[in-house]
TrEMBL record:
GO terms for biological process: chromatin organization; DNA repair. Residues 32-111 form the MUM1-like PWWP domain. This is PWWP domain containing 3A, DNA repair factor. It holds the Pfam family MUM1-like_PWWP. Residues 1-20, 165-187 are annotated as: Disordered. Gene3D superfamilies: 2.30.30.140, 6.10.300.20.
């Protein structure tokens, strides 16, 4: 006799009333923590999504950073009372969304898309980290770029980014003491100059085009394509190697043209996302091909260099470690 799960469930319900699955129950957090997504109303504007940067429990205040097109993830944000915050998934969420849509339909829609993409990537394991880390990483590039390319046509509320700087006590006339001048780290600039050779090889010389076309026409195997096809709708994205967004934008636009000329039929057959296909297949293949040509190494060595990513200087690592310590101290 086969087991009938439906009848089994009905019999259990007749015996006793069970609680619904926990996933169906709404449990709003009782407190606010660093990294949480919240709503905050600023002046005359509707409630708007924001990220908690720090929490001062004794003062019952928090520093929040509004989510918008040109948000600076390293910004300090503004200090507000905890009682003026609402959790992003609060019971009034839909009403807050409807209110924001009245004057900022496209902008709030973009914010929700960004938050949704972040949560989906957390759920499927393609990203692990805070929302601000996601926003600053290349993995959020497709969603961020969609609004940044249309900032003229998208209206955001004029929200405050940081608290006004307070004068330093003890300094004459309340003036701030001049900060110590820090010389720029030239490691990133040197990497950008080296990467410019890769960009010119891909875009100007079209050096990787025959390699890409061969992959799109199934004439050459590709580990990146195989991974993309076997990973479902969401794939594990790696860093894009190129750190400069202008360089990355040039290469992506070029790859879009290659895709439209060669790969559109292939993508139609397998019903895949065009942007993710470009970022997860064509982009790594193009950069690896360029590294192989510019550095005069074989494909395997170039691929290992791509996967390893840019080598950070000691100073860059020190700055990154200090940022982590600062964030940890803010949580305490």
């Amino acid at each position: 006799m086969e087991f009938d799960p439906i009848n089994s469930i009905l019999e259990e319900e007749e015996e006793e009333d069970e609680e619904p699955p926990r996933i169906l129950l709404y449990h709003e957090p009782h407190s606010f923590e660093v990294g949480m997504l919240v709503w905050h109303k600023y002046q005359k504007y509707p409630f708007w999504p924001a990220v908690v940067k720090s929490v001062k429990r004794k003062e019952k205040k928090a520093s929040v950073l509004f989510i918008e097109g040109h948000m600076d993830p390293k910004g300090r944000g503004i200090t507000v009372p905890l009682k003026r915050l609402k959790h992003f998934d609060c019971k009034e969420k839909q009403a807050l969304l409807n209110e924001a849509k009245e004057d900022f339909d496209q902008a709030i829609g973009w914010c929700v898309s960004l938050i949704t993409d972040y949560r989906v990537r957390l759920g499927c394991g393609s990203f692990s980290g805070s929302f601000l880390e996601y926003y600053a990483a290349n993995i959020s590039y497709p969603v961020r770029k969609s609004i940044q390319q249309d900032l003229l046509g998208t209206q955001f509320p004029q929200l405050c980014h940081e608290d006004p700087e307070m004068p330093v006590s003890g300094s004459p006339w309340g003036r701030r003491q001049p900060s110590r001048k820090v010389l720029p780290d030239r490691s990133r600039a040197a990497r950008d100059r080296a990467n410019q050779k890769l960009v010119e090889y891909i875009v100007k010389a079209r050096g990787a085009e025959s390699h890409l076309r061969a992959i799109l026409k199934n004439r050459k195997p590709s580990k990146w394509l195989k991974t993309f096809l076997n990973s479902g709708q969401y794939v594990t994205c790696v860093e894009t190697y190129l750190e400069d967004e202008e360089q990355l934008d040039l290469v992506v636009k070029y790859l879009q043209g290659v895709y439209q000329e060669t790969g559109s039929r292939m993508l139609t057959q397998i019903n895949c996302d065009r942007i993710r296909f470009i970022l997860d297949v064509l982009l790594p293949e193009a950069i690896i091909c360029a590294i192989s040509a510019v550095d005069q190494v074989d494909y395997k060595t170039a691929e290992e260099k791509y996967i390893k990513g840019p080598l950070l200087s000691y100073r860059e690592k020190e700055i990154f470690d200090n940022q982590l310590l600062e964030e940890r101290n803010q949580r305490c």
